[in-house]
Amino acid sequence: MDPKCQCLELNDGHFVPILGFGTYAPEEVPKSEALEVTKFAIDVGFRHIDCAHLYQNEEQVGQAIRSKIADGTVKREDIFYTSKLWSTFLRPEFVQPALEKSLKNLQLDYVDLYIIHFPAALKPGEELFPKDENGKMIFDTVDLCRTWEALEKCKDAGLAKSIGVSNFNRKQLEKILNKPGLKYKPVCNQVECHPYLNQSKLLDFCKSNDIVLVAYGALGSQRLKDWVNPSYPVLLEDPVLCAIAKKHKQTPALIALRYQMQRGVVVLAKSYNKKRIKENMQVLDFELTPEDMKAIDGLNSNVRYYDLLFISDHPDYPYSEEY
């Protein structure tokens, strides 16, 4: 990895840049834009790129990475690329083929990190959200410990340098950590995390097990009609964040990103706006005071933007527990 990069060491000895670029965009955004903005993000200094099969843009994101390698901007080993195993592929026999499909779309030989996207399994098949004739999600039942063993095999095969999870609660993490014959611990748990949902209990649990917390939705949320509860307050308009931003002559978004970094949380900044992508790199250039951090801690109000209520009756739905 680039020595300039501020990184955290993972429990398997690999390093992850503490600031990542999120590549998800709503369906109405043309896929070609993923190519453009990912190239731009690499140009301005992002080295950690977060994507997923679910986002349906791995081909474009892979193309961006490869073009920046081809033009000499970066080497493959400078880039930390994350992909995610979607819920329709959680049966152990589907795990490696799913990763191989992502690699084929990306035209890369390996991913730096492969994570289970969501702990609730859905009916296997090509449809990302399989529904019955009444429009209800069709669930599958999978033992996540078996899924995890299949991920361990992907690491041993060199297809993924590191393996982890996403959207897991404490009990679900413990299930894997306590699995007899565990070969590799998850290196991370990627969860929604921002000043209104600061995940302090889950963060403490992860730190105590040498698992890195990765924050998505760190700027609140894009108002995605199917995904996000629209009645919630807009994080970046919060008066406390705005006051701290003014004091530091920074934007509220940069304050929200910096807050995570200073807690030892890897933070993803998702934007398809070039001015803001460039601006988000400035998070490395200033520091919040302990008083600032305390004030932001005080904003926690358990506002979960991405509550995924359409699968809330799944036995493995993760958000019914306190954390």
TrEMBL record:
Keywords: NADP, Oxidoreductase. Substrate binds at H117. This is Dihydrodiol dehydrogenase 3 isoform X7. InterPro entries: AKR (IPR020471), AKR1C (IPR044482), Aldo/ket_reductase_CS (IPR018170), NAD(P)_OxRdtase_dom_sf (IPR036812), NADP_OxRdtase_dom (IPR023210). The keyword Oxidoreductase applies. One of its GO terms (molecular function) is oxidoreductase activity. Residues 19-300 form the NADP-dependent oxidoreductase domain. Signal peptide: none annotated. The gene is LOC101323272. The record marks K84 as: Lowers pKa of active site Tyr. The active site is at Y55. Belongs to the aldo/keto reductase family.
